[in-house]
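Lab notebook, bench 4. Still working through the backlog of constructs that have no structural model yet. Next entry is a single chain of 296 residues. Request: give me the structure tokens for it.
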Amino acid sequence: ASTEPAADAGQEADLGPGLCRLRGRLVDGQGRPLAGQVVVLYALGMWPEATGTQPIAASRGLPGFETRSDAEGAFRFEFPPPAVGANLIAGFDPLVGQRVLLFSAGRPDALAPLEPGIRELGDLVLPAAAAISGRVLSSEGRPLAQVLLSSSGQGWDTLGQSATSDAEGRFVLGGIQASRAGVSASALEHQSAFAGPFDLTPGQIHGPIEIRLEPGGRLEGRVVGAQGEPLAGVRIDLLPNGGRIVTTESDAQGRFEAVLQTPGAHRLLARREGYRARDIGEGLLEVEAGTPVELV
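Model written out:
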């Protein structure tokens, strides 16, 4: 089955002047049609309203349109040509691997730009994938919403899939094509955590699992100049040994605070335009939560 788009010079009678028609078919690894799969087409820049498609739901936050594959796995879009380029994403089901196509000029990883006329994509294969379901709670057992969940092999790396917990702390992290993976969880005001790794089977959901996030360690400090005057607007970067970098800024009194999301020591870099960066160990300073810091 071909996944390379092929230009078609012919036009169907019902295709309006100046419009593009993009069509293809979604199949699984055995060539069987995949029905009911969401297909999203969004512009890399501004895009006029399309014909015969529905605007993408606001929850996706994408400037474009979406449809679903029919019983034969087929899908179709009609639209004015995008000004710059466009992306097509197929497969939002947690148990299939996602497929992404980029249409743009001048990029070696992209397909030819979308132009007026008919464009055939042929069969797009969405392989079977695994998913991990679960719930994220605070250390006291309270559900945590808007926690970022990422697929990970060891906790410090990423496999590319992500999800967000709902109001009850529940999540389904899908599209995982690795045979073994875990879940990294991170949220504001909390320490990051890793669960797993787990043995996964394509076409199956592992779980539910439970992830508990401990409160983040709070770091407070003050930045002053050579004469002891407070310095406002100093950027403070806190770099853990693996994990999410935390950035904050000093206020009018030179004070700053941050919640550390990764347990253990952090290294600190302070800088502001017109001043030399704080240079302890090449501008870095070992700090831990609960340790007052004053930078000159």
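Notes after review: Confidence is low (pLDDT under 50) at residues 1-12, 279-284. The CA atoms of residues 132 and 173 lie 5 Å apart. Flag for follow-up if needed.
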